[in-house]
Amino acid sequence: xxxxxxxxxxxxxxxxxxxxxxxxxxxxxxxxxxxxxxxxxxxxxxxxxxxxxxxxxxxxxxxxxxxxxxxxxxxxxxxxxxxxxxxxxxxxxxxxxxxxxxxxxxxxxxxxxxxxxxxxxxxxxxxxxxxxxxxxxxxxxx
Length: 142
Hints:
The protein has helices spanning 16-27, 45-50, 82-100, 131-136; strands at 3-7, 10-14, 34-36, 59-64, 67-77, 105-116, 122-130. It has 142 residues and is an alpha+beta fold. The protein has one domain (8-136). Strands 3, 4, 5, 6 and 7 form a five-stranded mixed β-sheet that branches. Helix 1 crosses helix 3 (82-100).
């Protein structure tokens, strides 16, 4: 159980699996350009070829001070706009969490740990994008 809220009708429990489904749904818009990975950027070549990054993906989802915080680790396809693709993912997650689940959103961070080259090799990257920073610089709007 991630969080529980009580009202006059009963209790509403939101589990980690619901947030995982929202994250999975958000990545559908950037399929083939951005994949979930782990914090080291380690993804086997077989997983790159079949697109099964989620098997080793590391997602940090937690409630702090009554707000939801999400940190994702991803790898990006070489030549694709990292800011644009991560922005699309963050927008979808933020919209689904705030509108569908009505949870207060603290922040979403996406750490780009690698770039997949044309010959399917992964080159290490170290770039972190933050929802608040992207909204403040007007790269995305909520």
